[in-house]
Every structure is written in structure tokens, then in C-alpha cells.
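Consider this:
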Amino acid sequence: MKIIALMENTACRPGYAAEHGLSLYIETKKHRILFDSGQSGAFADNAEQCGLHLEDVDIAVLSHGHYDHGGGLQRFLAINSRAPIYVNKHAFGRFFDAPSGRYIGLDPALADNPRLILTGDTTSIDAHLSLFTCNEKTPAYPIDSAGLTEGAGNRARPDRFLHEQYLQIQEDGRTILFSGCSHKGILNLMSWFQPDVLIGGFHFKNVTLPSEQKNSGCPRLDEAAAVLSKCPTIFYTCHCTGLAQYQYMKKQMGGQLRYLSAGQMICL
């Protein structure tokens, strides 16, 4: 399996665009998959830099209904005329960043596009590809909405992330899990899936790190690193994890935790 990061907050080399967003190209033995599309069409420019032809993608998946993962869908639709796009049925809700009041959802104009396939809590694409929301599962760890809300005005409430789905690929006897932001909690995902490899954001970017002067720990990241270290999983993280938070956890997890930047390719 080959995975290329088409968009991420950082780029691994000059000439590649970077933005707050995520887009991955996944090539299995049977499929060419686009997983998310960043916040703009720049992921397609990076694909050209990598020598990829997005018109050959046969399946697209949107991890959840936030602009930084689905903002480039319009450009993908213009480039690729055939791939179905699997989007959860809740993905076109009204989503906001509460501290700023900014709308962070998808373009409502895309909701009726005939290429979109609306998914439920479990969707089997074929014998190797499946999508799960885990909405029916009981979390073992608290879910932090991190100031993100669903609904508007008097109906606003902390986002339950019902719109978030995870792509599970089974190939060559291994399970690879792709998560856009792990809003339901990376520790919950591990308790539910236990994959061989997990690729995606941990959404720790707002976790306050200890000051160097005090040399104190960070209980939330310490717990996460300790729990994840016990899992038989290799982690490639990115995007909403936060670089400083990643580096903090890396000191405890070593080679088990790796970073994925735009333009970078990994082979599994």
C-alpha cells in the first residue's frame, strides 16, 4: 500500500503547498483513493508535483464535515468525472468554531451533488474497504469538543461529531485505519479498532504544553502517549495533532510515532 500526503499543515520540501488541512492519496492493490481534500484546491497542485493523476482516482472519502477536509471537493469534482465520494449523512450540518463564531462546515451547494454517496454508521465499500462512525459505541475516554459546535443560534451545542467516519483498509493480513481528526478521541479509536497502522490527526493542537522553566508534565499528552505506547500499532500523525504536541509525545513513544507532511510518501 502506498500513501502520499497531498495536503497537510507542513510540507516536506520546497515547491509543495501547505495549509491547515488534510488530504491523502491511498493506493491499494485494487483502488486509488482520495481521503479528504484539504481546505482549498491546493492539494491538486501538490498531486501534480507528485506526478499523480487525480482523474484516475476511483473512490473518494470525506472524513467529516469541516472545511479543512472538504474545502477542495469542488476542484476534485472538476478534475475527476467518475469517482463516487463517500460522505456521512450528517456531514452537511451547521458547524462552527465557538470562540470565533466562524462557520467551519462544508459548502452547502455541494450537498445535492449526485456523485455523493451518503453513508450511515457502517458502510462496506467492498471486501477490503469499510467506513465506520462508531456513533453507537460507548467511549472509554471523554470526548473533548475543543470549542467546536453543531447547530446555530439557540440550537448550538458542543459538536458530537456524528459526521466523522473512519476508513478501514484490510490488505495483506493487516488493518490500516485512516482518521481525519480523531475528534471522538484517539484513545477511543484505539480501544475500538486496534489497527496495525493508524494514519491521521490526534486533535491535540489546543492542548497546553508545560513551560520549559517549570519542567512539568502534560497529563493529557502523558496519558495518551502511555496508552498508545501499549498498543501494537504504528502511528503516522499530522495536521491537527500540533507539531509541538507531536514532539512532546515523540519523546515518549519513539519510533512508534511518526509525522506525515505534504509531499511525503510512505509504503506499507
Notes: The chain has a mean pLDDT of 96. Residues 219-229 form the longest helix (11 residues).
